[in-house]
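Notes to self after the call with IL:
- keep both proteins in one doc
- input above output, always
- annotate only the second one for now

Protein 1:
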Amino acid sequence: MTEPSGPLQGIRVLDLTTILFGPYGAQTLGDWGADIIKVESLTGDGWRYSGQFRNRGMSGQFMAANRNKRSLALDLKHADGKAVLRRLIPTVDVLITNVRPAALARLGFSYEDCRKLNPRLVYAAATGFGQDGPWAARPAFDEVVQAASGFASAMGTDDKPAFVPSLVGDKLCGLSLTAAVVAALFRRERVGEGQLVEVPMLETVAAFNSIEMLGGHAFMPSIGPAGYKRMQERRPVRTKDGWITMLPYSGDNWCTFFETVGHPECIEEFSVRDPVLRASNIDKIYDRMSEIALSRTTAEWEELLLRIDVPHAAFAKMTEVAEQPHLQAVGMFVDLDHPTEGRIRQARPSARFSESPAGIRRLPPRLGEHTREVLREAGYSDAQIASLVDSKAVGAS
């Protein structure tokens, strides 16, 4: 793959995370240039076995969240496995973990334990719930957090909540984790010391959801219902031959839209010039737009809406998203040749840096693929590595 680049080049990270929240955050650090050592159990991250795969342990879902990493298979219940991790901690800048804090403390790798080995360490705990709350010891998964944060209620209703059919909590928390780690590294460069960073899923998703969904409850006492009416009413609209979304965004834009499509009566009927009255009528507006949309094909709508500067998009099928015109033009999806998994497709890093490009430098690793390499860097001899493999303190592919 390509030579190391990215703004985090030279930063070294121990990634003790599994499934999606932690791995996605760590992968983003890797995309941005950090050297990520993924520490896995001898059976591997459970996400390796989720979804479809050509070879067991290398699912497409796993590979989408674990590129730009090296895999070190390590048994942290084995005394020699613990010794390997203790030797590595002083050599890194960041340790990320989503092992429950109490369990990691029992293994001897709490923040206090690790800080003694490396005072400059940024120790990032990706937790389900804040460790100062009553749910601190509970396990958390995306569905649990969508339910407890009010997210599912916002997506459906209070009477009939609905999950977003995406692991949105894991992914947005992964990005929050990335940002928190970078912020802690920035502070360390100023003051010379590391710190404990905690990113709890429930709190992160609750804050994320609250921005528009508190509604009238953003005031004390409340001045109206919770929720955001437009979010409940917005919907795809059917055209003559497909689907489109279109959203005039200002009073003038709405007026231009209704005049152009031959329905100027809607301007006064729905009070579209006034943002407050327009918002109160949004359900009626969307009903009318659904009727109007059937008068043209998707291509005809795209041409018209582009001409009058109304935000819009045709719907891309999941099977065709790589061919979505803009994404195709910017090379958002890349096809790569993996040495064991064949041709694979991934979304490239979305953030772009003019002087230190992000990129895919390492393909997703097989379990224990880099065990020997990482141990040699830590000063182990080939004979010592062989002994560790034989004793099952480490695993190597």
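Protein 2 (the one to annotate):
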Amino acid sequence: MAKLKKVFVLDTNVILHDFNSIYNFEENDVVIPITVLEELDKFKKGNDQINYHAREFSRELDRISGDLLFTAGVPLGKNLGKLSVETGKEFSPQMKSSFQENIPDHRILAIAEYLHNHRSKKKVILITKDINLRMKAKSLGIPAEDYKNDQVKDLDDVISLGITTLEDFNDEKITFLYKSNEGIPEKEFGLEKPIKGHEYFILKNNSSSALAHFDPVEKIVSRVEKPNAYGIYPRNAEQTFSMHALMDPKISLVALTGRAGTGKTLLALATALQQIDMYDQIFLARPIVALANKDLGYLPGDAKEKIGPYMQPLFDNLSVIKHKFNVHSKEYLKIDELLKEERLQITPLAYIRGRSLSNTFFIVDEAQNLTPHEIKTIITRAGEGTKMIFTGDIEQIDSPYLDKKSNGLAYLSDRMQGQDIFAHVNLIKGERSHLAELASHLL
């Protein structure tokens, strides 16, 4: 029996999230409401990622469009369905009684309802990243779903609840790790299943313990010592493992996840300063989510003053490091020198575009507010000798169309796990203060 095709109606935010989304619905048909094209027009100008997606989709639509785009639809390719654009529809009595405002969301909903009522042989599903619009659609009896193509399927497997702790571990092996620099071969380590990528372990028995790391290239488990990076010392095992990953030249891509106050950004910045002689420059950047929802142009001051409040948390971390030293010390003066020479730059992520990322220690803070496509765009621009670090808390997402499973940081951790040049550490214990830790757990 042939599989019954479906019809997917795409909302504007799906295309702004992934301009290639029309190719991700297998053999099913895709419908773009005319209102979506109208809305995309408003996003074409600008330097943000959503503006890029709007322009790219318009180019792609122009490339594949034909006379049938507004009627029977045009084929999307081998083993794919058809793409069509549906013109505006009158609000049904049910639509009028429930949603009286004539806004873009409701016009898209009217088209989805019309197709739902008139294409009885095919199941019509509205795809939108807007939770409220999904609820509105369901109130009319229209199936509605989130765009799931780039969502992480098993989040617990990706963002684990902590570092692997091996209780009652062989005492002789722990002693060997302390006495030898050679480490323990994977086959002798004693795990039933193979170790994937750069994994970290806490080894314990009744008399001793050790922190360990698996090198996927050498296939060796070796002891991890607590480092010092520009006056910053790790306060727990998770921070120790993070600093190890940040300072290991074999690892060129690092993801640090965890709640606020676990030290992610501070550790990344401290290790960057510690290794400055290995790199030409340090970039510490973060996305300004407000750019997508509120025009910064209305805020007072010049460009630097407008973005200042968004960058302040990064400067706060730098201040913590500076105040570990006397104002006349070479370490303190070195930071001022790096800032003056612009070898150390703290800037919005959008300002990095067009910059050379060769031989750069590149830290992206608040990466949970990036889409998977934005993460890919950033990483694919890495030049020779560049190390990239993405930090963030997937529990605190400011973007209205991202969640724990669809944000770029979770996506990165999922797709890259097991790779020889990638390490991921999930920090759990807060180290900001007892008050901050208590608030994070209880409030």
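Annotation: The chain is about 35% helix and 20% strand. Residues 290-299 have pLDDT under 50 and may be disordered.
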